[in-house]
Write a structure and sequence with these properties.
The protein has one domain. Helices cover 78% and strands 0% of the residues. The protein is built from two helices and no strands.
């Protein structure tokens, strides 16, 4: 049973890592959208001489959106991981840091 608990605790840690990886990827995509929109605005200004008012804050998504959406799940994962860690400590086993 202790082996199963250790596996579950490690699995929860990997789940948190995957959520964070998705958040980082979402942030990169958001930055790319902002970069391309700024280029479009510069090109438009060079062609027409007219400025387009635009705020990059209006671009949704990114890491903040993923974290906001997944925060309850992340909290539950962290709580479950702490519970498993306590159960393993009661068994006298340390959680492995190897993945």
């Amino acid at each position: 049973r202790a082996g199963e608990l250790q596996y579950l605790a490690e699995s929860l840690g990997r789940s948190l890592a995957r959520i964070n990886a998705v958040a980082e990827e979402a942030d990169k995509e958001r930055e790319e959208i902002i970069r391309s929109r700024k280029k479009e605005i510069r090109d438009h200004f060079q062609r027409t001489g007219k400025k387009i008012r635009w705020r990059s804050d209006n671009v949704g998504g990114g890491k903040a959106a993923v974290i906001a959406l997944m925060q309850p799940t992340m909290n539950a994962l962290e709580k479950a991981q702490a519970d498993y860690s306590r159960a393993l400590a009661a068994e006298g086993i340390q959680i492995s840091t190897e993945a």
